[in-house]
Amino acid sequence: MTGAGWSPRTLAAQALGHIDAATRAVVPPIHVSTTFLRDADNQYRSGNIYGRADNETVRQAEAVIAALEGAGAAMLLGSGMSAATAVFLALAPGAHVVAPRVMYWALRNWLLTDASHWGLRVETVDMSDLEALRAAVRPGETRLVWLETPGNPLWTLTDIAAAAGIAHAAGARLAVDSTCATPLLTRPLALGADIVMHAATKYLNGHSDVIAGALATSRPDEFWARIRRNRSMLGQILGPLEAYLLLRGMRTLPLRLQAACAGAMELATRLAGHERVAGVLYPGLPGHPGHDIARRQMQGGFGGMLSIRLHGGAAAAVATAARVALWKRATSLGGVESLIEHRASIEGPDSPCPPDLLRLSVGIEDPGDLYDDLDQALRGGTA
Predict the structure, then answer these.
(1) Contact 179, 189 (CB under 8 A)
(2) pLDDT tens for residues 68-124?
(3) DSSP letter string over 283-333?
(4) How far is CA 42 from CA 38, 46, 49, 51, 117, in A?
(5) Which residue, of 169, 324, 348, 369, is most buried by count of CB atoms within 10 Å of its CB?
(6) pLDDT in tens, 6-35
(7) Which pLDDT score is estimated for 22?
(8) What angle do CA 15, 19, 21 make, to 5 degrees?
(9) Burial of 175 (0-12, 13-18, 19+ CB in 10 A)
(10) What positions carry a catalytic annotation?
């Protein structure tokens, strides 16, 4: 593979410029074999032993992610949840961890209900408040600080470099869920994080047809080796077809993300003045509490995600989502199609998400069409 000195856009578009050695194909083949031939002296000089741990299609996709993140190594797993929980499960029993109060709901639910079964002690804080984070970490006890920025679905910002300093001073690692920022907007490892995680189902794939998770590390140390071993032993693997589709999706990531960021910025600006909208949560707006942090650590845009809070509470939010025609009422984010969702209904009674909130994932459609559809939905179905 090549790629030294290439921009992230070129790295993604060329998939590192890989050419298949056997056929000279510019599109990487899908390797589906589950087992591999030993050498005559009983060795495995190819580096491949068994498909659960060894697959060249998976490795090629991992190499692209590592290059985009500026990482020492990357690892693909079967889902975003698989990737996230793999980090926590690599900790020793009894470890104290600090996580955000507002974050991806499934991981939050797992941390608060199931993580204790593995002996983990979980404390949640407002990660936008660095003093609260500093007070929560316990030197010698805290082994992992997990943060998500921008934080779903309120789109709060955390200063990654400052959080890394706090975590490292306490002897803890810092892991960052950077799913919504993607490597093209934020590179957490360059800001001091030890591990970055992506629900690759979302922006990295970008076509709503792959479930995958990714991890990248600044250095492949003993902790990383433990995650890798667990991936193999626990079967947290990604299949070759999924890896191929992910690799294909990443080749258009820069173009898709550029369109999504531009569309989200236009929608956030226009919706901020809408008479039926009580508030717009988007880091690109100057009035957003995390705008200054976003300007420092997000390069090239503020992301394709925003949320709106409606006058009229939960009833108005649910009714508005019911009236859209172009937007799709569906879970997930980061695809080419624009999605709208009433998050509080999905997350349940313990959700920290306000009931008047609608989460918007902006796709690559014309922003004017997206605004007009939301406008008629907000006004009760009348243009």
Answers:
(1) no
(2) 999 999 999 999 999 999 999 999 999 999 999 999 999 999 999 999 999 999 999
(3) TTSTTSTTHHHHHHH--S---SEEEEEETTHHHHHHHHHHH-SSSEE-S--
(4) 5, 12, 11, 18, 41
(5) 324
(6) 899 899 999 888 888 888 988 888 999 999
(7) 85
(8) 145
(9) buried
(10) 52, 104, 177, 202
Distance CA 240, CA 236 (A): 13
Query: What torsion do the CA atoms of 123, 124, 126, 128 make, to the nearest 10 degrees?
Result: 80
DSSP 118: G
Residue 1 above 50 pLDDT? Answer: no
What residue ranges define each of the domains in the chain, with the CATH number in brackets? 8-250 (3.40.640.10), 254-378 (3.90.1150.10)
CB 86 within 8 A of CB 236: yes
Res. 222 pLDDT band, cuts 50 70 90:
very high
pLDDT at residue number 2: 56
What single-letter amino acid sits at 82? S
Answer yes or no: is pLDDT of 135 > 80. Answer: yes
The token duo for 2 is: 């090549």
Q: What is the mean pLDDT of residues 26-46?
A: 90
What is the Cα–Cα distance from 336 to 306, expressed in whole angstroms?
15
Instruction: Find, among 92, 69, 109, the residue nearest to 195 by Cα.
Output: 69
Asked if residue 67 lies in contact with residue 16, where contact means CB atoms within 8 angstroms, the answer is yes
CA-wise closest residue to 257 among 294, 202, 308: 202
Give yes or no for a contact between 151 and 159, defined as CB atoms under 8 angstroms apart: no
Three-point CA angle 297, 152, 199, nearest 5°: 85
Residue 305 near residue 150, CB atoms below 8 Å: yes
